[in-house]
Write a structure and sequence with these properties.
- The chain is mainly beta.
- The chain folds into 2 domains: 88 residues, no CATH class; 64 residues.
- It contains 3 helices and 12 strands.
- The radius of gyration is 25 Å and the shape is elongated.
- 11% of the residues are buried.
Length: 168
Amino acid sequence: MPKITTPNFVTLHPVAPKNGRLDVGQAFPTLEITRTETETAITYRRITAVDAPDGTIVFMRDPVCRGGSHHRLVNGELVPVNYIDALNELDPENAGRRRYEARLGLLPRKPRRFTLPLDRADDEWVPGDTYPDEHREGAYVTCTKRSGRQIWIRATTYEEIVALGVSP
């Protein structure tokens, strides 16, 4: 069981995937708080017993900065890991869904009306068909209705893309 030393106000927490996000658990227990004095400062450090194997992702809560960050436990040291990498490692089966939904950006999730320009009025937009988005690579839109130059489109869901056989 590694012992990690952090500033006094920082606590370490285990994390686990829950509902597509990383859920932070109860803090690991504090073994002791040490005090160091120099001529210019007094420093307090927290020694925490982290009951987790090497390679585990932990959350370092920092109330001074009103936040925290994710770290990987490697040989008794904390190595920073960004949130997306930590989430993809702990919940790999939903990584494709998260990548696809990130590509959708601000595409409308409900049908929205667009008017085609005069020079593109003869474009074939067939209701019920799915098309690659012109502006976001890897994103798809579904035409829900067409009336003359007006079309209604929405972002294609991850389930629909997978059903079409496209690998997002």
